């Protein structure tokens, strides 16, 4: 069906020619009408400008006189001649401006006709709805893009330079269960009259809102979302906490490595990844560890950090607050204020750093089984409010001053730790090294020294003294609903290898000072991620020992990194890396056919 856009006309002009219109002609239409005959005469422009000038001039004069009377304690009811004249001019100009500009405003509030939730009764929107409905009846939604929509006064999507060039549309994803009412909503979103972010609250149905938003996105961009699933996801579970304005969800395969024998227990480790060889390699490391009796781990520090930055008028005042916060005599009072924010938050320490007259306060606290960023931020805010009473000249610049440091590589995390600090170790028998890992103890020790230690030092690495810790950390984080961005500091790791038992066996360890994980909150409560946590036996909070589930998850992450390091280093030492990736990490599909 070949539809043509008909010229749009202003609603005010259309209504003015209709005696039965619900919208009476507006006095203010002269400000927006394009007809030269309807514009204000120049004399009226001059009068308006003069009255506005008088209004603000006498207002400024009266405020100045009021301030002077307050300073001199003069009575307000005693007025001089200029003051009386100014009052009369103020009253007259106010009445004029209110009569000229205010009548239409109050009239629009009192006499505004009821409107539909999605569109009012103007002729333009009826055309949009009719055309969209006609397109939906004649063709699938993807093909309906070939129908031109009515011309709007503005284009909310495409730049002006692209308007003249027709958009090549793809065959779009056909919506499921779309109704005529959905078509009206989609047309309203496409026209820019209904904000996309408000669909959930207006429709009251998160799945329907995602479908409407998805179809509107396809129509405005002309690009297909075929392949991005819509069905099979609980959109209610992410409302207000995990993702805004969803249009579908991305599928990431989850593989299982293991069993990982760690601290005399076996774990099947879920890893969400699209990198071939990663799960297989980690699985081989788990096998080697299991054949040698398993690995052991220790959580030697557990504390989330938050570091606000404050500023004083002098460096001396900043130093005074530093001494106050770091004094043991004041810690009990500060901790009671901090801990009142949550029954799981327990303040551990406050360490300060000065930069001129700026002070950085690094709070550290335990957070139970939550990762704890929101929890510690609430406690820090309580302390900041308390300190403001004794230090009124303290200017809180930001609740986070990057001395925390969150989602950025930082030496303070590498040295002081953040989240869970874990060390994990295992002794691999020489026979296992030769038969399972296909290399030798001597080759692994030498490669680790030259690659992970010397090579990383030559590169100026910060916390990157390992082969590929971030690979395993990211895969487990995505599978278990952690914050993937915190992979940055959580992957800080130093891998150590040395020959033991007269050089026959290999001692391997990983030390990870800032593993930031939680088993409650955020993405951990989504169905898929919750299932992966349940597989590890760490789903939700541990009521008997708060914090033990998150600490156990941190040890599983470290143990999996140990397995991944062991296997990859063995592949490198044996020269198998390229061969294995060519076999397992390359697609057999014809790329030219896929792209077409």
UniProtKB/TrEMBL annotation:
CC annotations in GO: endoplasmic reticulum membrane; peroxisomal membrane
Keywords recorded for this protein, A-Z: Endoplasmic reticulum, Glycoprotein, Isoprene biosynthesis, Membrane, NADP, Oxidoreductase, Transmembrane, Transmembrane helix
Membrane topology: Multi-pass membrane protein
Enzyme class, broadest EC rank: oxidoreductase
GO MF terms, alphabetically ordered: hydroxymethylglutaryl-CoA reductase (NADPH) activity
Keyword Transport appears in the UniProt entry: no
Pathway where this protein functions: Metabolic intermediate biosynthesis; (R)-mevalonate biosynthesis; (R)-mevalonate from acetyl-CoA: step 3/3
Localization: Endoplasmic reticulum membrane
Main location group: endoplasmic reticulum
Reaction equation(s) it catalyzes: (R)-mevalonate + 2 NADP(+) + CoA = (3S)-3-hydroxy-3-methylglutaryl-CoA + 2 NADPH + 2 H(+)
Residue numbers spanned by region Disordered: 1-26
The keyword Glycoprotein appears for this protein: yes
Ranges annotated as spanning the membrane: 44-63, 84-103
Gene3D superfamilies the record matches: 3-hydroxy-3-methylglutaryl-coenzyme A Reductase, Chain A, domain 2, HMGR, N-terminal domain, Hydroxymethylglutaryl-CoA reductase, class I/II, NAD/NADP-binding domain
EC number: 1.1.1.34
One of the Pfam families matching this protein, by short name: HMG-CoA_red
GO biological process, one term: sterol biosynthetic process
Family: Belongs to the HMG-CoA reductase family.
Protein name per its UniProtKB record: 3-hydroxy-3-methylglutaryl coenzyme A reductase
Organism: Rhodamnia argentea
């Amino acid at each position: 069906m070949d539809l043509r856009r008909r010229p749009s006309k202003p609603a005010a002009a259309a209504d003015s020619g209709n005696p039965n219109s619900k919208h009476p002609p507006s006095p203010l239409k002269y400000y927006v009408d394009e007809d030269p005959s309807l514009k204000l005469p120049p004399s009226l422009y001059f009068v308006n400008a003069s009255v506005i000038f008088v209004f603000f001039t006498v207002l400024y004069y009266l405020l100045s006189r009021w301030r002077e009377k307050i300073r001199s304690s003069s009575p307000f009811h005693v007025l001089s001649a200029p003051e009386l004249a100014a009052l009369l001019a103020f009253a007259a100009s106010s009445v004029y401006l209110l009569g000229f500009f205010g009548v239409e405003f109050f009239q629009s509030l009192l006499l505004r006709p009821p409107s539909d939730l999605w569109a009012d009764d103007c002729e333009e929107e009826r055309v949009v709805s009719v055309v969209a409905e006609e397109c939906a009846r004649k063709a699938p939604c993807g093909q309906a893009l070939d129908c031109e929509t009515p011309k709007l006064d503005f284009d909310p999507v495409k730049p002006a330079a692209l308007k003249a060039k027709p958009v090549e549309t793809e065959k779009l994803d056909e919506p499921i269960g779309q109704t005529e009412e959905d078509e009206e909503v989609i047309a309203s979103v496409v026209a820019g009259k209904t904000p996309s972010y408000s669909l959930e609250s207006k429709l009251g149905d998160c799945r329907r809102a995602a479908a409407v938003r998805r179809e509107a996105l396809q129509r405005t961009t002309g690009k297909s979302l075929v392949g991005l699933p819509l069905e099979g996801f609980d959109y209610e579970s992410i409302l207000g906490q995990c993702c805004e304005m969803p249009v579908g969800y991305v599928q990431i395969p989850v593989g299982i490595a293991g069993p990982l024998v760690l601290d005399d227990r076996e774990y099947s480790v879920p890893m969400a990844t699209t990198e071939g060889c990663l799960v297989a390699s980690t699985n081989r490391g788990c096998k080697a560890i299991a054949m040698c009796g398993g690995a052991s781990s220790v959580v030697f520090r557990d504390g989330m950090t938050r570091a606000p930055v404050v500023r004083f008028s002098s460096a001396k005042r900043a130093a005074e607050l530093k001494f106050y916060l770091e004094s043991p005599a004041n810690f009990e009072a500060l901790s009671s204020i901090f801990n009142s924010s949550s029954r799981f938050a327990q303040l551990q320490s406050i360490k300060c750093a000065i930069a001129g007259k700026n002070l950085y306060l690094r709070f550290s606290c335990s957070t139970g089984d939550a990762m704890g960023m929101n929890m510690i931020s609430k406690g820090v805010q309580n302390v900041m409010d308390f300190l403001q009473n004794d230090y009124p000249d303290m200017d809180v610049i930001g609740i986070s001053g990057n001395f925390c440091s969150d989602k950025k590589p930082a030496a303070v995390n590498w040295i002081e730790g953040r989240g869970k600090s874990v060390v994990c170790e295992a002794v691999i028998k020489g026979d296992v090294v030769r038969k399972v890992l296909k290399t030798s103890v001597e080759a692994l020790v030498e490669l680790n020294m030259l690659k992970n230690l010397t090579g990383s030092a030559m590169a100026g690495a910060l916390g990157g003294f390992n082969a590929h810790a971030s690979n395993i950390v990211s895969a487990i984080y995505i599978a278990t609903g952690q914050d993937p961005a915190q992979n940055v500091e959580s992957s800080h790791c130093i891998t150590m290898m040395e020959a033991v038992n007269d050089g026959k066996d290999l001692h391997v360890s990983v030390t990870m000072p800032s593993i930031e994980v939680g088993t409650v909150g955020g993405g951990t409560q989504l169905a898929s991620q919750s299932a992966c946590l349940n597989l590890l036996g760490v789903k939700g909070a541990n009521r008997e020992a708060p914090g033990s589930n998150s600490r156990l998850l941190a040890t599983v992450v470290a143990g999996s990194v140990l397995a991944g390091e062991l296997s990859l280093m063995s592949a490198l030492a044996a020269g198998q890396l390229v061969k294995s990736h060519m076999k397992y990490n390359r697609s057999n599909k014809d790329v030219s056919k896929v792209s077409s």
